[in-house]
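Example 3.
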Amino acid sequence: MFDLAQMDLPIRADLVAAFREVWEQLARPGTRLSGAERVAAARIARAAREGEQVAPSTPLEEAAARLGGRPWTIRPDWIDKLAEQGLAPEVYVEIVGVVSRMTAVDTFHRALGFDLEPLPEPRPGAPRPVETKARRTRGWVPMVGPPTIPTALSAVPAENEAMEALHGAMYLTMAEMQDPDIRKTLHRTQMELVAARTSILNQCFY
Amino acid sequence: MLSWSATTTGRTIDLRAVADPTRDPGLPGGRELLALAEAAVTGEHVLEARERLLAALGPAATVDAAAVAGNFEMMNRIADGTGMPVGKAARRDRAFVIEALDLDRLDHTGT
């Protein structure tokens, strides 16, 4: 899995480890979804992102397809409609986490001309629900505390923690983000140029 | 974040290049970084963009640029998927960027 040492570019070991962890998380039962449901969501999101024809037949599939292929079209009434159809907000948040991390890994591969990593085989087992004090305020989903990027997925703590870990490996840790002059192989301003161009192409205002 | 980093560290950058990559942003490897980001999102001209960035900034920076693009594909989905609001203060602080890049057209959170 993620045999990137065979590639012709120097892929950091911590990055490979982070990608493997994303795939492990994807395959395991989550907080509200089974491993099979998580991998199914990832498969549909990947197909939608790659421009394949996707015909969602369940609210889970509809959420995954939209998040994968056209996230800028998401509106609160659509999320509410999914909830009316039985997709609880915490389940939706878990799908946001699963799809967004898989897309991050896929994008890395795509940008460097690598083949996409095959999705993992789901692991057996039941999800383990976790209760939080998340509630919906100014965002469109419940969160613990005020709506900010670090709390965006806090209704499902495991998803929030996984997002932070991947964020740290692929870009900057939350602590490093305080430094406008940080330099890795790229200076912070160069990183932000890539970030801004990516976001504007994705029609993301935030 | 781009304008904050550039301003705080005394770098001059043409922010309009973010929306119009025919412009030179004025950073080392800037045009090549923009091209790699575009290839990452669209899947088009990938090998050309990769080779250009390799020539401009080298292999380690090319890998890191791909990682940053990947990270923001994640963050964009999280922000759009959860309706992350941009507060009034942040909007005020970024007013010149919002105007320069015509970003109000992308603000879905008020709808």
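Chain B touches chain A through 70 residues (CB under 8 Å). DSSP finds six helices and no strands in chain B.
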